[in-house]
From TrEMBL:
Belongs to the NAD(P)-dependent epimerase/dehydratase family. dTDP-glucose dehydratase subfamily. Residues 3-322 form the NAD(P)-binding domain. It comes from Trinickia dabaoshanensis. Keywords: Lyase, NAD. The keyword Cell wall biogenesis/degradation does not apply. GO terms for molecular function: dTDP-glucose 4,6-dehydratase activity. Its EC number is 4.2.1.46. SUPFAM superfamilies: NAD(P)-binding Rossmann-fold domains (SSF51735). The keyword Secreted does not apply. This is dTDP-glucose 4,6-dehydratase. PANTHER family: DTDP-D-GLUCOSE 4,6-DEHYDRATASE-RELATED. Its cofactor is NAD(+). One of its GO terms (biological process) is nucleotide-sugar metabolic process. It catalyses: dTDP-alpha-D-glucose = dTDP-4-dehydro-6-deoxy-alpha-D-glucose + H2O.
Length: 353
């Protein structure tokens, strides 16, 4: 069994669904179910004994000890985090708590459990920490892409707390020998993303006839990776990565935000044409995000060279799939937008889904 934290969130849920499509090995899904956790996403796993769900806060050391002792996982894949930069600007406390204190509590619980294992199991154990390219800070237009050796320079409360967690993970390898792996990935997009993030927000607003709020001049650049490509990279790193190493994950898709929004509008113009005009007419340039990083770009060549990973989707195929998915899953989106998903979470939550 593997222990996944944050498996009811966007990337974690995609990872759990992908994992259980391809493997018989069970998943212990540990998630607190904050606003970003949505069990509706995992509805297809109800009654599947390979998926065990535990509503637990990663800051709760006693609960974590009990889960390790009962389920005896061979690995941890740690997604749980507060993940939205704008929320971190308005309320950084939850970010420090979950991303730093929570990762610390999880590392401690993992270390206690790992120390109790037989030698062979100890050597095979892995703790994979899922992190972000935002820890490296902001690039100028002609700077080289982030590599694994780029110095950390986080600029937002979110990225500062992720950087803190990355450093703790590094220290647990160097100090205690816990077999850790860290991945730093670029911006993900695809099914089941909470509609506070750029791509699902723009699709939802476009379809609702609302403004498409582009921060600043729209020229901030992100590298975009389709979520299932992130999941396949994590599986590779978990299977064959070298303990103590970090791996950058990216899609080689640097795009200015305004280009991303134009692409979405153009896809929607074809898929769901308006009576007149284009969805582009709804674009509104708004006040910039404070401290808004100008450019992120990832050099993923280490992962490609050492582990043979390659993304399956291009930006074009990934965006087309994403728009189609949101159009075909309006019920999921509407439930999130209306808050109805929280009721579903509360009434359908059971220890074992
Ligand atoms: P998300 O916000 O969609 O999901 C986070 C999940 O963690 C939710 O299910 C939430 O309930 C859970 N959670 C939060 N606090 C918790 C706590 N204290 N205890 C237990 N569970 C808790 O996030 P996401 O976009 O899926 O990101 C997952 C991970 O990947 C994060 O660590 C994030 O930093 C990292 N990451 C995200 C992106 C991206 O583009 N979204 C890119 C690179 C890295
Ligand atoms: O309404 C918007 N308008 C806008 O212009 C929103 C929500 C965003 N933006 C801009 C800000 C960013 O330059 O779009 C870009 C992407 O924004 P987000 O979707 O909020 O993502 P970002 O801030 O880049 O962070 C994301 O990628 C890295 C994830 O939220 C992080 O968890 C991940 O680590």
């Amino acid at each position: 069994m593997i222990l996944v934290t944050g498996g009811a969130g966007f990337i974690g849920a995609n990872f759990v669904l992908d994992w259980l499509r391809g493997a018989q090995e069970a998943v212990l899904n540990v998630d607190k179910l904050t606003y970003a956790g949505n069990l509706r996403t995992l509805e297809s796993l109800q009654g599947d004994s390979r998926h065990v769900f535990a509503r637990v806060d990663i800051c709760d050391a006693a609960a974590l000890d009990a889960l390790f002792a009962t389920h005896r996982p061979r690995a941890v894949v740690h997604f749980a985090a507060e993940s939205h930069v704008d929320r971190s600007i308005h309320g950084p406390a939850d970010f420090v708590q979950t991303n730093v204190v929570g990762t610390f509590a999880l590392l401690e619980a993992a270390r206690r459990y790992w120390a109790s294992l037989e030698r062979g199991e100890r050597e095979a154990f892995r703790f994979l920490h899922v992190s972000t390219d935002e820890v490296f800070g902001s690039l100028g237009p002609t700077d080289p892409q982030f590599s694994e050796t780029t110095p950390y320079a986080p600029n937002s409360p979110y990225s500062a707390t992720k950087a803190g967690s990355d450093h703790l993970v590094r220290a647990y390898f160097h100090t205690y020998g816990l077999p850790t792996l860290t991945t730093n990935c670029s911006n993900n997009y695809g099914p089941y993303q909470f509609p506070e993030k750029l791509i699902p927000l723009m699709i939802a607003n476009a379809l609702a006839g609302k403004a498409l709020p582009v921060y600043g001049d729209g020229r901030n650049v992100r590298d975009w990776l389709y979520v299932t490509d992130h999941c396949s990279a994590i599986r590779e790193v978990l299977a064959r990565g070298e303990p103590g190493q970090t791996y950058n994950i990216g899609g080689w898709n640097e795009k200015a935000n305004i280009e991303v929004v134009h692409t979405l509008c153009d896809l929607l113009d074809v898929a769901r044409p308006l009576a007149q005009g284009s969805y582009r007419d709804q674009i509104a340039f708004v006040k910039d995000r404070p401290g808004h990083d100008r450019r992120y770009a990832i050099d993923a060549s280490k992962l490609e060279r050492e582990l043979g990973w390659k993304p399956a989707e291009t930006f074009e195929t990934g965006m087309a799939k994403t728009v189609r998915w949101y159009l075909e899953h309006q019920a999921w989106v509407n439930e999130v937008a209306s808050g109805e998903y929280r009721k579903w979470v509360e009434t359908n939550y059971t220890k074992r889904m």
